Every structure is written in C-alpha cells, then in structure tokens.
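[Solved] Which block belongs to which protein?

Original post:
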Amino acid sequence: MDIREHILELAKKAKGKVILPESFDTRVLKAAEMLTKNGIASVVLPTEKNIEEVKKIAVNASIDLSGIEIINIDQSLLDNNKVKEFVVARTKKGMMEQDALSLLKKPLYFSMMYLKSDKCNSCVGGAVYDTSDVLRASIHVIGTAEGIKIISSYFLMIPPENHPIIKEPVIFTDCGVNPDPQALGLKDIAVSAVANFKKLFPDKTANVAMLSFSTKGSANNKVLEKVIEATKLTKEYFKEQNDINVDGEFQFDTSVVPAVGERKAAGSTVAGRANILVFPDLNAGNIGYKIAERFGGFQALGPIIQGLSLPVSDLSRGSSAEDIYLISAIMLLK
C-alpha cells in the first residue's frame, strides 16, 4: 500500500476546504499550493495584515497562490451566534467581553471559529504556534466530541519497505498530549483512535491492543489496574461492532508478533494482529513512537489531534510543507 497516495485519494474524494492560520509561513503557503494544484482540497488563508503581504511572501518564495482564498480577519465572516456562545463561555471563566472578542481577531482563534461557523471542513495549525496554543484554542472554540472527555493525539506509523513484522500502517496513541490518563481517559483515547483508523482504512477491521508490561495477568501490580479497567470499558463500548476488536492488557510483542500472540494469548482476535496500539501513559507512548521511528525506520506522521468535535490538528514546529500537505489531507477524511 502506498499510504501517501491512499490518503490523498481519499481526501480528494471528500472535496473539502481547509483553513491554514499560519499564512505568514512559507511551508504553509507551499502546502496550500500543493493542496490546490493537486486538486486535494480548497484552501483558505486568513491574515491580520494586508492580503498583498501574504502574496509578497509567496512571490519571494516562488509559490503560486492561484485559486487560493486569502481573507482579512473580519468578525463579520463568522457565525454571530457561535461568536456569542464563545464570548459567554469565556466571560463565565472571568474574561472581559472585549478581551474575548479580541481573541477572535487572532489567526488561530479566528480560524477555529471559521471552522465552527461551517465555513470550512478542517483547521490545521502548529507549524509556528506552540502545541499549547493550538490545544487551548481548540478547547475554547471547538470543544470535545460527544461522549469524549479528553483530547488526545495519534501518530500514523508507516513501516519501511520489507519490514519483517509490520506490513501496513498502524496507529500509536496517545504519544503527545496526556501524561497519565486514567481508565476512562484510555477508553476515550481508544475510541478516538478507532474513529480515525476507520476514516483512513474504512474497509479494514480495527484491532485495538491496550498495552502494558503484562499480558493477561502475567504480572501483578497496581499500575496495571487502569489498563485492565480501560480494556473492559473499551470492549463494552464497541461490543455491538463486528469490525472492531479490543483486547488487553497486552505486552507490545504479544500485540504485533503473531507467534508471540498465539503463545501468550491464544484465541485472541487482537493478539499478533493489532493495528491500533494504546499506550498506558505519555512516557511509554512518546518513547515508543520514537524508538519505532529511529531504530525501526518507521515514518511517524503526526502528532494528529483527536477527540475534538470538529477536525483540528496540531503540527510539529519542525513540519515540512509535505507534512502539512499530508496532515491537511488526513483532516479532511470523513
């Protein structure tokens, strides 16, 4: 599977529009050019400055912005009722009304509210903004998805050609947001990851492994309790869905190596064939994806934010134009 072409083809079929708040960054402008020229999506670039300044930045970088919508930040472009809801929510938290309105004049908050106003289908930022800024704006403007209490993230881990074990992309979660989620949090992370897996691979069965240092009681320690409970909660959540399997607690090798899975968890529908790996905490998740990336040669695409009521993603500040291009495409999948 050529995962890049797979993602782009799915995004092209979605016929969506993405807003990119960092219109002053040449990587973002290049990604916007690629999205537009390749027919992947329509693009909106908001700016606090004169539109001509954005065009000048593009010209100096030999980027063609033909067909891209560049807009001055203007509250009149937003849904007035959504703006009022935002202001009320912020004032309840102690913010002055004028300060709340001033936030919407900033590219990040404006872009989130533009999405909330149904003017586009997704928002992708973070090439320049800190993750904390993107998450804060997301929570304040967009909010979490129904039934989900926490925002999390995932990496799409793409194996190198001829990898001895993993032949197709897998999801690692959560590797970028929650330091120590408890059982309900791990369930929410798993639920969000399954939703994203199904957007990426609608015809595949999701096999969710809840990871730990123990397999089915092979160790006995208090820190395992939350993983065991999270496994029960996640299984219950998906009990009516035949194309989603959940099992755990599993060690990593039990999850992905068929021979080990058969030996340690015979009869499991997940052991040895997991394609969604839910880590017990941020230490394990962050270390795990970086080991896979640096030692295993995997491409780590992300972190991609999940758990919000609308598609918003944070970028790594080291993102290339190609990274922004692909993540923007992912965020348009339905």
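(Second protein starts here: sequence line, then its structure tokens.)
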Amino acid sequence: MIKKLIIIVVFVSSVFAQSNQSNLFEQFSNSFADIAEDVNESVVTITTTNTVQMDKDVQNFYRYWGRDIPDEYESKSLGSGVIVDEKNAYIVTNHHVIFDERAQKPVEEIKVQLLDKRIFEATVIGLDKATDLAVLQIEASNIKAVELGDSEKVRVGEWVLAIGSPFSASLSHTVTAGIVSALGRNDVMNNLNTYQNFIQTDAAINPGNSGGALLNMKGQLIGINAAIASGGGRANAGIGFAIPSIMVKKVMNDLIDKGYVVRSFLGIYMQDINEDLYEALNLQTRNGAIVSDIVDDSPASKSGLVEGDVIVSFEGKEISNGSELKNLVSSTDPGSRVKLGIYRDNKKKNIFVTLEEREDIVATTTNVNYEFGLLLENPSEDLINKYKLNEKNPSNIQGVIVTGVEDNSPAEEAGLQEGDIITRVGRKKIYSTKDFLSEMSKFDDESKVLFLVKRGSSSRFITLTR
C-alpha cells in the first residue's frame, strides 16, 4: 500500500512539474512576443543616398584600357533608428549611419521608413562622433516612442532583445534574442577621441542593425546597437555591442538643446595599469589609472594632482581603467566639485577637483566657412591622418585646422594652405571653432586681423582684412 502511494505521488508530481514547465516556457515566449509587438513601431529603417565623386586616377586607369566610367555615382546605405520622442518626432541612430567620412559631412538624403510603410525625409538635429550617436527629426504624427530604461541597472546574464533592419530594408524589424554577455566594454573601437562603455550581447546583430534598439524584458530601451565583432568581418558571430541608454540620454538631450555635447574634462594624460607597471612602481592595486602628465592651468593642475598618482575612484565609484574614468568625467556637469580617490606613495587619500567644460569637443562635426575663403574644423584623428600632422592625439592640438581654401580668396592670397593650424586670432589663443568665431566677432568690418599660423614645426603671423 505504501509502495503504491509513493508511485502515485511521484506520478502526480511529475505531471505537475511538466505542466508548470510548459506554462513557464509559454509565459517566457509570450513575453518576447509582447515586447516585439509593443516596441516594433518605435524602430525605424533608415536608408541614405550620397553622391560619390570617382577618383580621377581610377578613371584614368579604366580609360587607358578602353573603358569609360562616370565622374560620380550614387551610393546607398542602410541602418536603423529608434523613435525617442513622439511629440517632436526625434529619432536616435548611429553617427556612422548618416555621416559621410570621406566628405566629412552628413549624407545628402536620409529617408526614414516606419513599420506601417510610411516614408519621411529626415533632418539632422545633431551629431556626436565621439559616442557614434546622431539625432534626426521627421515631420510625422501618429507615431510611438520607446520608453527609456536605465542601463546602470543592467546585469550580465539577463535576457535582451535586439530589433533592426539587418542586410536589407526587406528584412526590417527583425527581432533577435540573447543575453547580456558583458558590461563596460571600452576597447571595441580603435579611436582615441571616443567615449566607449558598451553593453556586449550575443543577440544577433548584423550590418543594417546599427542604430537599432536593444531592449530589456520590460520592453525598455537600454542601448543603441552600434557594432559587431566577427571573425570574417561582416556576419554576426555572437558578439554585438550597444551604446548604453544612460549615455544615449545625455548625448541626445545635449544635441537637441545645444547642438553639441557638453563634456567636462580633468586635464590629465593617463595610463592603465599593466603587470610591468604594477611591479615596477610597487603599486597597491591593479585597478585605476596612473596620471602620466598634467595639462597646464587645467582642473587637475589646480587641484593638486601630480604625476604618478593612481586614481582609483570617482565620487565613491571604483574605477577599473582610464576609459571608465574618462566616461565618468565627461558625463559630469562642468563646474561640479568631485572627489577622486587616489594612491600616492602607496597611501590612499582624497583629492577634490572642480571640473571645467571641454571646449575642444564643441561643434566637432561643424565646419566653419568664413568670409576669408577659409574652411575650418576642430582637430580630429581623421584630420591628423589626412594632413600628417605631428601629433597623435587631437586634444593635444591647440587651434583650428584649415581644411579648405577658396580660389582667389584673401586666404589664398595670404598663403594659407590646407593643413595649416590657426592658433591665435589677434593676441588671443584659440582652441576651437567656437573660440575662432567668438574672437572674430570682436573685429569691425574692414579691420585688419592678425593670425598666428602653424605649419609643420614653424609658426608665422599673417594679416587679413575682414
């Protein structure tokens, strides 16, 4: 009798377990489907069109062999975006989706297609190459914005969904699922002048997904999909990266409100701690960042930081490397007084620093076309490489770079050339195009303006009449 009772209990328990497991899987599946249905209309497909000028050497090569090719051709590309404000119809996407790196300007035409197949022409509201983000706007009604989540609460191992348009517009609103594989990835893009703090996921992300949504299981936006890592170079291999929503929110608000991203700076050069440094300097920690140099008259120099200090925390938050510190500093409001935890001579202490606005970031995507026939831009890695300047880091260049000189203009007559760096207007040092315009506004028409121009390793003064 007892044996029979045990068999009945085991059988009933097994039936209930299978029933509960079935219900669990069904609920789990329904959760994915509910999120996809709710958020799909907030994700858009972006197609861009741009006219590309054919290289003359390439044309001449083909003509030599009896083939003629056109002077220019139309280039089209594909990406994704997310509606973040239904009242103003703002859309967040990646900078690289709508920016022509060769011409250093946004593409000529941007079309946004919604889930209901409506198509709108988009206007660029703002660009930020440093975070690979851009804000667009369309004239549309009856649209739905996604709810922004808190990426600071994301945990490794939690389930996420990615929505975008991989490979083709005909595959728009493709939904893939995976987990958060890692947080705080900062060595994804090989670019000195970037702010990287990626969420890593194994949800399938492919070309065309760029700018699309990464969602938590509440259907909230926790990231903008930005990059993939794959052995072959194009197809997904289970490693994708998304820009966290906390960074998206700040950049988006700054671009909408000001047209550029407000960032603070500390004024230091730093190194991560490797095993050699750890042993050679007899350090107490492998986490943090070592101060290798301090910029004159910077917040760091005013605070008492010195070379060799190891910064291990920012406002009580422990940091593991220099990239993490850079992100925390840049996202803090200028004028904030912050506490840095440091090791100096293997003794722990606190240093208080009042952060200042980083001027050289202002309007980094904006060209200044001035009446002298000059096209000016803020320093960037692309310009350093293009003009083979004697500097590796854009933040080390003081001045603005001449990127264009009009024929028969006062600038050309004065001998200015592309790649020249204007370091002073009058007697005032300048650090950005914003500084240049500010100083020029102080001169009346017909005034003679003195420029200090650096070319190679030498500098000279030139005078132009406004």
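Accepted answer:
You had them paired correctly. Confirming on the second one: DSSP finds ten helices and 30 strands in the chain.
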